[in-house]
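Chapter review: from sequence to fold.
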Amino acid sequence: MIKDYIENGFLENIVDMFKHDKSMYPYIGDMLKDDRARVRLGTVALVETLKTEDINNILTAIPGVAKLLKSPNPTIRGDSAYILGIIGHKDALPFLLDASDDENEMVREIVEESIKVISLLSSPLHKS
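The token string follows.
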């Protein structure tokens, strides 16, 4: 149902569902595996929104998203690296560092960018 709602553009409804039911956050990884591009793009938008509106709970999505870095599909690996970069928390760094030697050049680039973003956000200079 969640994937269908995202595909149909009901992002605000999904954001509200996640904010009211914290147990849904781990399913973000499953949403990234969907074959429908609109669902995957909607999941990116969902994470971007939840990062600003519910930062503490979005962190619970990291393990489910990070496991997709080992997917046989390079698109899914790239999307998961990108999402981890959006979340921008240092807890994602070990997973990204493990994926930094991905066989796919595009995935490696996304992983590298996400590592840079997280490193910058985690630096003492950024927190000042």
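Two observations follow directly from the output. The first helix runs from residue 2 to 7. The chain has a mean pLDDT of 92.
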